[in-house]
Design a protein that fits this description.
With 276 residues, this protein is mainly α. The protein has two domains: 129 residues, Fido-like domain (Fic-like fold, Orthogonal Bundle), CATH 1.10.3290; 88 residues, Winged helix-like DNA-binding domain superfamily/Winged helix DNA-binding domain (Arc Repressor Mutant, subunit A, Orthogonal Bundle), CATH 1.10.10. It has twelve helices and three strands, in the order αααααααααβααββα. It is elongated, with a radius of gyration of 23 Å.
C-alpha cells in the first residue's frame, strides 16, 4: 500500500503495472512467495475444489485473461466515470476477484485495491479504511454475493453489502480513534503522579504512541536520552500498568504498550488461505 500510494503521488497511474509492482512486494516473503510474485498467471487457477471440474468458480482461461485485464484497466482509467468513487471501488473489487489474475494473493491485493482506489480518487487522504475484517466476519455472505454476481449478475445485492461494510467500518474506525485518544489521555494523567520522574516518562510514552513495541537502546537513540534514564522511565510505566515487558529476559528486553496494542490488534487474525 505504501509503495502504491508513493507511486500515485509521483504521478504514476493506477494501472496493471502498478498492481503487479504491489503484488511483487506483497508476495516477496511468506505465503505465496513461490507463486510468481509480480507476474500475471500463466496457467489456469480455480476457487474451491481440487480441480477446475469440481471447483466453485473457475476464473477466465489463459486465452481470455489479457482481454479481461485490458477491460479492467480501461475501467480504472475512465476519464468520465459513470459512478461515484465508492461504487467504482465496489465494482472493481468484484472484477478483480473474478479475473483472479495471479496464482496467489488475489484476495489480499483485491482488498488493498479498494483502499488504493479511494485514495487515488481523493475520498481518503490516508489509507485508513480497510474492509478486510468486515469481509472476514461475514465470510459466507462475501463469497456467496461474489458468486451471485458471476452467475446471475446480482450487482445490487453485492453493492448493498459492500456499502454497508464501508459505513460500518468507517464508524468502527471513528470509535477506535476515540478509544485510543481516551487511552492516551488517561495514561498521561496517571503519569503525572510520578512527580519529578514524569518528564522523561512523558517522552517515552509519547514515543510509544508511534512505536508501541520498543527496546531501551532504540528509545534512547530516538529520544536522545541516556540508557539509564529510559530504563527508569520504562520501569515507572510498568509500575503504573501502562507498559509491559514481553520477553521475560534480562537482556535485549522488549517493552509493549499493551492496552494500545490490544486496541490495534482487535480482529486482525489472518484470513484463511482459501480467501486468496
Amino acid at each position: 500500500m505504501e509503495h502504491g500510494l508513493k507511486r500515485l503521488r509521483e504521478g504514476f497511474p493506477l494501472s496493471l503495472r502498478l498492481i503487479r509492482e504491489m503484488h511483487a512486494i506483497l508476495l516477496q516473503s511468506g505465503r505465496g512467495a513461490s507463486k510468481q510474485p509480480g507476474e500475471f498467471r500463466r496457467s489456469q487457477n480455480w476457487i474451491g475444489g481440487t480441480r477446475p471440474g469440481n471447483a466453485l468458480f473457475v476464473p477466465p482461461p489463459m486465452d481470455r485473461l489479457n482481454e479481461c485485464l485490458d477491460a479492467f484497466e480501461k475501467f480504472l482509467h475512465a476519464d468520465d466515470p459513470q459512478f461515484p468513487p465508492l461504487i467504482n471501488a465496489g465494482l472493481a473489487h468484484v472484477q478483480f476477484e473474478t479475473i483472479h489474475p495471479f496464482l496467489d494473493g488475489n484476495g489480499r491485493l483485491g482488498r488493498l485495491l479498494i483502499t488504493l482506489m479511494l485514495c487515488s480518487d481523493g475520498v481518503l487522504r490516508e489509507p485508513i479504511l480497510y474492509l478486510s475484517l468486515y469481509f472476514k466476519a461475514g465470510r459466507a455472505d462475501y463469497y456467496r454475493l461474489l458468486q451471485e454476481v458471476r452467475e446471475n449478475g446480482a450487482w445490487e445485492a453485492w453493492m448493498e453489502y459492500f456499502l454497508t461494510g464501508v459505513r460500518d467500518t468507517a464508524a468502527q474506525a471513528v470509535d477506535t480513534a476515540h478509544e485510543i485518544i481516551t487511552l492516551f489521555e488517561h495514561d498521561r494523567t496517571v503519569i503525572q503522579t510520578l512527580g519529578r520522574g514524569s518528564a522523561s516518562a512523558f517522552r517515552v510514552h509519547e514515543l510509544m504512541q508511534k512505536r508501541p513495541l520498543i527496546t531501551i537502546p532504540v528509545a534512547s537513540r530516538e529520544l536522545k536520552l541516556s540508557l539509564p534514564t529510559v530504563g527508569k522511565s520504562l520501569e515507572h510505566l510498568i509500575g503504573l500498568g501502562i507498559v509491559r515487558e514481553v520477553t521475560g529476559k534480562q537482556r535485549r528486553r522488549v517493552f509493549a504498550y499493551s492496552k494500545y496494542l490490544a486496541v490495534l490488534d482487535r480482529g486482525t487474525e489472518p484470513l484463511p488461505p482459501s480467501a486468496s
